[in-house]
């Protein structure tokens, strides 16, 4: 009987061995990154909520505490021209308005101020004023100038009123201030408010300007 040869063991062929399979390792880098992102997001949410709560408390405090109201007064008014012909109003009106901030710790940012002049509920004058900041316990003076001509239709009672006031030389003119303001307390500023202030009971005399020639 001939000898039978056995084949190579352990999968070896021609003297070369097959390495055992490798088992992959799971990395913890992804989980650590997720935890950091979640923590950062939570901190951002908490900070934002805290800021909103603080701003809300400040606004409520400004609204409900006994703040001294800002006081406006028309100090000087000069009307040198107010003629109405062919549905055109020609006018020259100047006025000074004082604004008093009586508060001790609150400043006011006047981000936008629009001045308007009305006659018989029709606007004939407009002026945009320069924004400014008013500190606490401070008085500022606004210089208004309305000069030019504007289409203005007067009929019926409005025309009758104009003719009567032309005879008396005393005209009923209303002034209006439309503003966008922010209150400032320390380094904190509120959202913008849009107050509107009206002076609709002005009786302004027409001042005649005389010229002297030498």
Automatic annotation (TrEMBL):
<feature type="region of interest" description="Disordered">
    <location>
        <begin position="1"/>
        <end position="29"/>
    </location>
</feature>
<dbReference type="GO" id="GO:0098542">
    <property type="term" value="P:defense response to other organism"/>
</dbReference>
<dbReference type="GO" id="GO:0009506">
    <property type="term" value="C:plasmodesma"/>
</dbReference>
<dbReference type="InterPro" id="IPR044839">
    <property type="entry name" value="NDR1-like"/>
</dbReference>
<keyword id="KW-1133">Transmembrane helix</keyword>
<keyword id="KW-0472">Membrane</keyword>
<feature type="transmembrane region" description="Helical">
    <location>
        <begin position="35"/>
        <end position="64"/>
    </location>
</feature>
<dbReference type="GO" id="GO:0005886">
    <property type="term" value="C:plasma membrane"/>
</dbReference>
<feature type="domain" description="Late embryogenesis abundant protein LEA-2 subgroup">
    <location>
        <begin position="97"/>
        <end position="199"/>
    </location>
</feature>
<dbReference type="InterPro" id="IPR004864">
    <property type="entry name" value="LEA_2"/>
</dbReference>
<protein>
    <recommendedName>
        <fullName>Late embryogenesis abundant protein LEA-2 subgroup domain-containing protein</fullName>
    </recommendedName>
</protein>
<keyword id="KW-0812">Transmembrane</keyword>
<dbReference type="Pfam" id="PF03168">
    <property type="entry name" value="LEA_2"/>
</dbReference>
């Amino acid at each position: 009987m001939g000898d039978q040869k056995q084949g190579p063991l352990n999968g070896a062929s021609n003297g070369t061995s097959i390495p055992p399979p490798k088992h992959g390792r799971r990395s913890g880098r992804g989980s650590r990154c997720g935890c950091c992102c979640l923590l950062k997001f939570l901190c951002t949410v908490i900070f934002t909520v805290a800021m909103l709560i603080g701003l809300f408390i400040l606004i409520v405090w400004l609204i409900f505490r006994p703040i001294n109201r800002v006081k406006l007064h028309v100090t000087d008014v000069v009307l040198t021209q107010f003629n109405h012909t062919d549905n055109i109003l020609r006018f020259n009106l100047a006025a000074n308005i004082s604004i008093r901030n009586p508060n001790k710790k609150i400043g006011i940012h006047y981000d936008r101020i629009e001045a308007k002049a009305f006659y018989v509920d029709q606007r004939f004058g407009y002026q945009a004023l320069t924004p400014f900041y008013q500190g606490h316990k401070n008085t500022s003076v606004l210089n208004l100038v309305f000069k030019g001509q504007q289409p203005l239709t007067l009929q019926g009672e409005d025309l009758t009123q104009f003719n009567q006031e032309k005879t008396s030389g005393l005209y009923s003119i209303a002034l209006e201030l439309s503003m966008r303001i922010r209150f400032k307390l320390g380094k904190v500023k509120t959202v913008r408010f849009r107050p509107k202030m009206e002076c609709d009971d002005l009786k302004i005399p027409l001042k005649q300007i005389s010229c002297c020639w030498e």
